[in-house]
Amino acid sequence: MARRATIHDVAREAGVSVATVSKAVNGRYGIATETAQRVMDAVERLGYESSLVASSMRARRTGVVGVLVADFEPFSAEVLKGVGASLHDSQLDLLAYSGARQPGGEGWERRSLSRLSGTLIDGAIMVTPTVVSANSDIPIVAVDPHTGRADLPTVESDNYGGALMGTRHLIELGHRRIGFVAGRPDLRSSSLREAGYRQALSEAGIPFNPDLVQVGRYEPDAARERASSLLSSDSPPTAIFAANDISAIAVLKLALSLGLSVPDDLSIVGFDDVPEASRLPIPLTTVRQTMQQLGSEAVRLLLTLMNGDPLESTHVQLPTSLVKRASTAPPPTTR
């Protein structure tokens, strides 16, 4: 089988630099018309038109939508399912991409976009991006960005209302000492969930107790450690609201390992409704955010932008709902 022509082969054939080939391929400014034509002729001779890059040169489109994620974890996986389902009949391909992360984890979006935009993808959906000011030649939509609404079109869930709902459920069952395993301090969604927790306590006349709040960072090991601190205190909570299901599941497993009965000794509420939540031996009561719909809405916004049409709104907030399962019950003192 003959070796596929590369961008370096095209550059040699046309007598130009690789950078000039890149400009011609992507239709960018700063290159003379006759030089661009010479590059196109070289592409034809070498058969380079079979690549995605050459396709973008001819049609100004690759027919590929990129979904950029920091990690392939349950939340981003569900968003990806929604994106894939929405693109199923669109004749567009889906590229899921997770680039190498640097210490601190910030700015991965810019690196990923610089590698993909204009050559491999026509538009991008960034899931939980750390920055929302990334410059790009392609349309971009952000799902649940760290800092919340910004310059980019954004899709997110009602994090505040969902946390309010989940904490109210525990209060209505009769719980007064309600622990909270918070998410990452740098995420707006995490801050909103803590605000919803605090508001529910305030409405019920329950004083906020900082000793009942521990930061689990949305990570199972950290959540387990922080929950252990709560449950080993002199006056442990009778219920714990965790800022995501991964943390709530870690709390549930810890409670059972300590010999506690869930929900007889400890009620637990999560947030997300990941698939595992309903499959546990003790199915998890949780606040459901429609993660696949987040992906579907992001696709709707992105396709509108790719078609050159105006958006009715640059921000979409999806509602949340409470899913009651077996992990919550009235506290022992009320039974």
Describe the secondary structure blueprint for this structure:
Elements: H1 7-14, H2 18-26, H3 33-46, H4 52-59, E1 64-69, H5 74-87, E2 93-97, H6 108-116, E3 123-127, E4 140-143, E5 154-157, H7 159-172, E6 178-182, H8 188-203, E7 213-215, H9 220-231, E8 239-242, H10 245-257, E9 267-272, E10 285-289, H11 291-306, E11 315-318, E12 320-323
Parallel strand pairs: 1-2, 1-3, 3-4, 4-5, 5-11, 6-7, 6-8, 8-9, 9-10
Antiparallel strand pairs: 10-12
Helix pairs in contact: 1-2, 1-3, 2-3, 5-11, 7-8, 9-10
Your description of this structure?
With 335 residues, this protein is an alpha/beta fold. The protein has eleven helices and twelve strands. It has helices spanning 7-14, 18-26, 33-46, 52-59, 74-87, 108-116, 159-172, 188-203, 220-231, 245-257, 291-306, and strands spanning 64-69, 93-97, 123-127, 140-143, 154-157, 178-182, 213-215, 239-242, 267-272, 285-289, 315-318, 320-323. Strands 2-1-3-4-5-11 form a six-stranded parallel sheet, with helices on both faces. Helix 1 (7-14) crosses helix 2, helix 1 (7-14) crosses helix 3 and helix 7 (159-172) runs parallel beside helix 8 (188-203). The longest helix has 16 residues, at 188-203. The model has no long low-confidence stretch (mean pLDDT 87).
